[in-house]
Amino acid sequence: MQIPESLDRLIQEFSKLPGIGRKTAQRLAFSMLQYTPVEAEHLAEAILEVKQRIRYCSNCFAFTEEDPCLICQDPRRDHSLICVVEQPNNIFSIEKSGVFQGLYHVLMGAISPLDGIGPDQLKFRELEQRLEGDEVQELILATHPTVKGEATALFLQQAFESKHVKITRLARGIPAGGDLEYVDDVTLIEAFSGRQRFNKGEV
Predict the structure, then answer these.
(1) Choosing a second label site near 129 at 20 to 30 A (CA), which of 11, 34, 103, 191?
(2) CA distances from 100 to 21, 46, 66 (A)
């Protein structure tokens, strides 16, 4: 039996989401058919609202509805610490653990020469500007423990080694090849508490 055109379109849209294959997309689409018109409208409104209201913080590039974001605005945070992450969603994992009370800086990716991504394609210059002055005392590199993440951390260490800031890397409680998004709270707490000074050539 041929899938109706409108249903097939919905399946195709779901298939565009990360980690969603054709079969999973079909299950999601079929479940949508069980929604009442009001429930479907609420879902559509939620998608439109998040696209309209969510933006990047002009300071740290986290997801936010206010600019600057609530973390950057909070006077209770330790402004002498900046934790560098690859993507905005990495911040939620760290915040959930409650182990870090400093500020963040999102690079919006990782260095990958094969993909044509270098420092100029990332928020590197913005980070450099935030290190001007004496307020920031420590830069915590929390890039993913992958080849790209380690290359990015090494570049940052070399770029800022002459600065006044101490550069540290999260401890190896995070598994090699892992992603911060899937790391549990206990592991994150151990990684932050056991962070070490990041030395040149340490990968």
Answers:
(1) 191
(2) 36, 30, 21
The confidence score (pLDDT) of residue 62 equals: 98
Q: What is the pTM of this model?
A: 0.80
Residue closest to 198 by CA, chosen among 144, 164, 157, 159: 157
Residues of the chain with pLDDT under 50: none
Mind listing the pLDDT tens digit for each residue in 148-174?
998 999 999 999 988 889 999 987 655
**Residue type at 83?**
C
Q: Which CATH architecture has domain 5-53?
A: Orthogonal Bundle (1.10)
Dig out the tokens for 195 from the structure: 């962070």
167: which strand partners? Answer: 139
Tell me the domain boundaries of the chain.
5-53, 66-197
Closest C-alpha to 183, from 171, 198, 168: 171
SS3 assignment for 117-179: ECHHHCCHHHHHHHCCCCCCCEEEECCCCCHHHHHHHHHHHHHHCCCCCEEEECCCCCCCCCC
Q: Which CATH class is domain 66-197?
A: alpha beta
